[in-house]
Amino acid sequence: MNNKPNSDKNLASLVSKLINIIIVLIVIVIVLVGLLLIYIPIPAKQNKVEGPKPDAFGNFTDAAKQEALKIKDTTNYWIAPEVSTIGNQQQKETILYGRDLIANTAEYFGPNGKIFKSSTNGMDCQNCHLDAGTKIYGNNYSAVASTYPKYRARSGGMETIYKRINDCFERSLNGKAIDTNSREMQAIVTYIKWLGTGIKKGIKPPGSGLKEIPFLERAADKVKGELVYTQKCQSCHQQNGEGKFNTENTAYTYPPLWGNNSYNVGAGLYRLSNFAKFVKYNMPLGVTHNNTQLTDEEAWDVAAFVNSQPHPSKDLKKDWPKISEKPFDHPFGPYADGFSEDQHKYGPFKVIKDKLKNN
Ligand code: HEC
Ligand code: HEC
Question: 245 C-alpha to center of ligand 2: Å?
Answer without folding.
Answer: 13
